[in-house]
Amino acid sequence: MARRWTSQDVAALAGVSVATVSYVMNGRMIDRIPAPTREKVLSAARQLDYSPNRAAQSLRRQKTEQICLVVDSIGVPVIDQLARDLHAAADDIGYGLITIVVGSDERGEKATRLLHQRIADGAVIAPSNVFRFREESLGDLARGGLPLVVMNNTVRPAGFDVVRAPEREACGEAMDHLLSSGRRRVAFLGHHEEVTNPTTRAESARMGAYLWALARHGIDADESLIVEGADERVAGYRAATELLQRPDRPEAIFAASARSAISAIWAARDAGLAIPDDVAVVGCGNLPETEITRPRLSTVGPPTTEDFTEVSRLLFDRLLAKERLPEREITNPWAFVPRGST
Amino acid sequence: MARRWTSQDVAALAGVSVATVSYVMNGRMIDRIPAPTREKVLSAARQLDYSPNRAAQSLRRQKTEQICLVVDSIGVPVIDQLARDLHAAADDIGYGLITIVVGSDERGEKATRLLHQRIADGAVIAPSNVFRFREESLGDLARGGLPLVVMNNTVRPAGFDVVRAPEREACGEAMDHLLSSGRRRVAFLGHHEEVTNPTTRAESARMGAYLWALARHGIDADESLIVEGADERVAGYRAATELLQRPDRPEAIFAASARSAISAIWAARDAGLAIPDDVAVVGCGNLPETEITRPRLSTVGPPTTEDFTEVSRLLFDRLLAKERLPEREITNPWAFVPRGST
DNA sequence: CTGTTAGCGCATTCAT
DNA sequence: ATGAATGCGCTAACAG
Question: Does the keyword Ligase apply (chains A, B) (predicted)?
Answer without folding.
Answer: no
